[in-house]
Design a protein that fits this description.
Aminopeptidase; Glucose Oxidase, domain 1; 526 residues; 8-stranded mixed beta sheet
Length: 526
């Protein structure tokens, strides 16, 4: 079929009937103009219920799982739960260890048994305990009675005339505000200001920066450690900034308030050990609904979500567990619910459908990028990835979002039009968000598959909402009826792709898709 020719066709595909397939120049963009819901498909949709989603999410986002940090006991519990639900649904295990794709990783841990921190001033010597500090640097440190200089962080003139002669080898004590306690709209601005401040002090050759925290009496100690990919062991490098130690001891805060700016006459001694490396295993969870068509069953449609979140922040007041119900517990339980519903089909889809949840999205798309390097199913046989994120909350900062959903990179490929047609059949408006659709394309796990040339997009209901990455993102704030309705639409769209003889294509008319078109041609040899 040549580019630029429009063709009307009627194609029967399993339990779906598509009317009016449209081919548009120049990339044969295929999308059904209409989706007809058959009785069997209606029965599948009815299996997706608000009560079932609520039951799954009340566990996945419970305090027991402690925010599902990567790595953590809570993350492992979540993985086992997801695998158990795949097993219950009857989808096949598809990992290298049952339902798990196990990835060897490394984490650094700093021994704190020999930690020392002592501030000495006229007539007073104060020892700070390991649970009253938060260490923000990666190297060992051994300082003995280094001179203490007070710098007022909020004074723009504080370092204007500073010289290395005044600061070299010294410890600067200051009070850097924690940007995570501020409105999220200010985070980038405050983070840049902090980096500029620490970089300036690094140029003055200070030995250490101590920031006092007058809000929380406890710190994170040696921290949660740094994850290292053994397949990509590049040396850890940060911006040229001074090492930062936050002290949460009220006694040190009181001394700081009594000090005048400049040399204080006090000294600080600090001893921290170097971090040590520890091997760990992280797991993607993978289930397979095998297709029925002899020619198409070895091609794959992926539906994915990340099941991790950011864990516990012990120096937070009140609720310190970041449960991540919407981000991305909602996507995780939607994958579970879709697996259960689609596995009930008497007539299996022509292509195989893969249900997968990734680890480590919050740490830099770790699980999806690992899968991109180690695909269980051949990349050249993977026709699409639909990644689900933040599909539960309807209280968007842009106003209520009910009965609608949006895709990142909406018009990068056919997938957006396919979902739009599925939405029209199920009462969901699937649209392109003019500001965020393109901007958020690379911010979730779809990116790793798109980089390999697979048409891959993330579907969400709200890009931003109250409690985003906050301790208040709880399971009881989810709009379960709306989430069930959106998931029913997703089921229809997945079956549309899985039953079509044509694969989704990248849009050659969209310049933003060029890199993905190139990757697709390289992997498929065409």
């Amino acid at each position: 079929m040549k580019s630029g020719v429009s063709v009307l066709a009627r194609v029967a595909c399993g339990s779906l009937v598509f009317a009016g397939l449209i081919l548009s120049a120049p990339a044969r963009q295929l999308a059904p103009a209409k989706v007809t819901l058959t009785p069997e498909l209606q029965a599948v949709m009815e299996r997706i219920t608000a009560d079932s989603l609520r039951g799954h999410l009340s566990f996945i986002a419970s305090d027991l799982l402690e925010g599902r940090n990567t790595p953590s006991k809570g993350l492992d519990l979540a993985a086992e739960y997801i695998a158990a639900q795949f097993r219950r649904a009857g989808v096949e295990p598809a990992g290298n260890d049952g339902y798990f794709q196990t990835a060897p990783w490394i984490i650094t841990e700093r021994p704190m048994d020999a930690f020392e921190c002592k501030l000495e001033t006229a007539g007073e010597s104060l020892n700070v305990s390991a649970d009253q500090v938060s260490i923000g640097f990666d190297s060992p440190l051994n300082l003995s009675r280094a001179g203490l200089v007070k710098v007022v962080y909020r004074d723009p003139a504080a370092l204007t005339t500073a010289t290395a002669a005044e600061f070299e080898g010294k410890v600067v004590v200051t009070e850097i505000p924690d940007f995570r306690r501020e409105d999220r709209s200010r985070w980038n601005e405050m983070f840049r200001a902090q980096n500029e401040f620490l970089s300036k002090l690094a140029s003055l050759k200070v030995a250490l920066v101590v920031s006092v925290d007058r809000i929380n009496p406890r710190g994170s100690g040696g921290g949660a450690g740094r994850l290292i990919d053994p397949e990509n062991r590049t040396a850890f490098s940060s911006s040229p900034s001074a090492p930062l130690l936050t002290i949460h001891d009220p006694r040190i805060v009181k001394l700081y308030d009594e000090m005048k700016a400049g040399a204080t006459g006090a000294t600080l001694s600090v001893r921290t050990a170097a971090p040590v490396e520890k091997p760990i295993k992280l797991r993607n969870v993978v289930g397979l609904l095998r297709g029925s068509d002899p020619m198409l069953k070895d091609t794959y449609v992926l539906v994915t979500a990340h099941y991790d979140h950011v864990g516990v922040r012990p120096n937070e007041h009140g609720d310190s567990i970041f449960n991540g119900a919407n981000d991305d517990g909602s996507g995780t339980v939607s994958v579970i619910e879709l697996a259960s519903a689609l596995a009930s089909l008497k007539t299996r889809p022509k292509r195989s459908i893969v249900f997968m949840t990734f680890f480590g999205e919050e740490k830099g798309l770790l699980g999806s990028r690992y899968y991109g390097r180690h695909p269980i199913f051949p990349i050249d046989k993977t026709v699409a990835d639909v990644n689900l994120e933040q599909v539960g909350r309807t209280d968007s900062t842009e106003g209520p979002q009910t009965s609608n959903a949006t895709l990142t990179g909406f018009d990068y490929s056919d997938v957006g039009a396919i979902f739009k047609a599925a939405g029209e059949a199920t009462g969901i408006t699937v649209y392109k968000h003019e500001r965020n659709s393109d901007a958020y394309f690379g911010r979730s796990d779809n990116q790793a598959l798109a980089d390999r040339g697979v048409p891959a997009h993330t579907l969400c209901v709200a890009f931003a909402y109250p409690d985003y990455h906050g301790a208040g993102d709880h399971w009881d704030k989810i709009d379960y009826e709306n989430m069930a309705k959106v998931d029913r639409m997703v089921a229809v769209a997945l079956l549309t792709i899985a039953n079509s003889l044509d694969e989704p294509k990248w849009n050659e008319a969209n310049a933003r898709a060029a890199r993905y078109i190139k990757a697709s041609r390289e992997i498929r040899g065409k």
